[in-house]
Amino acid sequence: MKLSTVLGGRTFQFRTLKEVLAKANEEKSGDVLAGIAAESDLERVAAKLVLSRLLVRDLRENPAVPYEDDEVTRLNQDSIDPAVYGEIAGWSMAELREYILDGSTTEQDIRRLSRGLTSEVVAGVCKLMGNLDLVYAAGKVRVTATCNTTIGRRGTLATRLQPNHAADSVEGITASLFEGLSYGCGDALIGLNPSGDTVSSLTEILKRFDEVKNQFEIPTQICVLGHITTQLEAMELGELFALMLETWVMTFAMKVMGLVITVILYGRMIEIYIYASVGPLPFATLMNREWGNIGANYVRGLAALGLQGFFIMVCVGIYAVLVNALTLGGDLQAALWSCAAYTVLLGFSLFKTGSVVKGILNAH
């Protein structure tokens, strides 16, 4: 793995792959403050040149955070598809870039390719692209997301409005918020990264965002980033207790309903087995005038079992559609109760399918 190059009569030697990735970045104030940015445009180009010649294998084998020290790195590495990775491990980062931007590369190709890419590889190839390259590459893949609104559809442009303020002044943030709204921004999200991580600051900003959103009936989502402990502290004790209780009740109810549904399905399989095992006896009565009704009722019961299987598939299909259509929309409790209600309805529907189909076919 070569981490040096000669450019403009100067030799640039980088110590680590992380340094190459950092200095290949376009200039950002955060990188400059952290002391990891390229010292000049020439060094930035040199870092990009070195990065372009590295192999996909090099970036996977040298993660930004060691595999042994980081759960996210382990999850990322362990989820790689070996077959896909084996096809591209020997590609240079420049070749990977050209493949993504190739006009013949489709969304399906990129989705398959993604199964062989680690986070470092994705970050690295993006550093070799300009803004138009990134727009073109991203435009090949559709990723939709739904909360209060749906974003990511073709022909739909959505923007994030992020009115950050150096001192987290609520009034300063509000002024930036209204300025952004005046440009039509914020339909994807009104979000903010506070400079501090205090309960009071997070709560005040969230309340202001919520007030503006509701007052002007803005169809969007709001978010203020904060550590999970800060987010929990910002909630009142009653809300935390209610959420804990609801979560516990939902977990218990879902387990019970899962057990009930499993019993219903296994019961149906046992019923099918019993019906099939005694089949020769009722079939033998079909030609007998006195006992023929036994065979006829058996046939109706067998047909009812088949129709019940169809009804079960319909119920499960409807349940899947309803659950997939659930959105939090800022109301976690409503989503939890809706999911529980759908599950109870599924269990009741599965339980009633037997009597319904027997009534339809007059099978007893």
Give a verbal description of the structure:
- With 364 residues, the protein is mainly alpha-helical.
- It folds into 3 domains: 4-144, Orthogonal Bundle (Annexin V, domain 1); 160-234; 237-361.
- Helices cover 62% and strands 6% of the residues.
- It is built from 17 helices and 7 strands.
- It has helices at 17-23, 29-34, 41-53, 56-61, 71-78, 82-88, 93-101, 107-114, 119-126, 131-138, 170-182, 199-215, 228-234, 237-277, 280-284, 292-324, 332-361; strands at 4-7, 10-13, 145-146, 150-151, 160-161, 189-192, 222-224.
- The chain has a 3-stranded parallel sheet with strand order 5-6-7. Strands 1-2 form a two-stranded antiparallel ribbon.
- α12 crosses α13 (228-234).
- The longest helix is centred in the C-terminal third of the chain and has 41 residues, at 237-277.
- The mean pLDDT is 86.
What's the short story on this structure?
The protein is mainly alpha-helical and 364 residues long. It folds into three domains: 4-144, Orthogonal Bundle (Annexin V, domain 1), CATH 1.10.220.70; 160-234; 237-361. The protein has helices at 17-23, 29-34, 41-53, 56-61, 71-78, 82-88, 93-101, 107-114, 119-126, 131-138, 170-182, 199-215, 228-234, 237-277, 280-284, 292-324, 332-361; strands spanning 4-7, 10-13, 145-146, 150-151, 160-161, 189-192, 222-224.
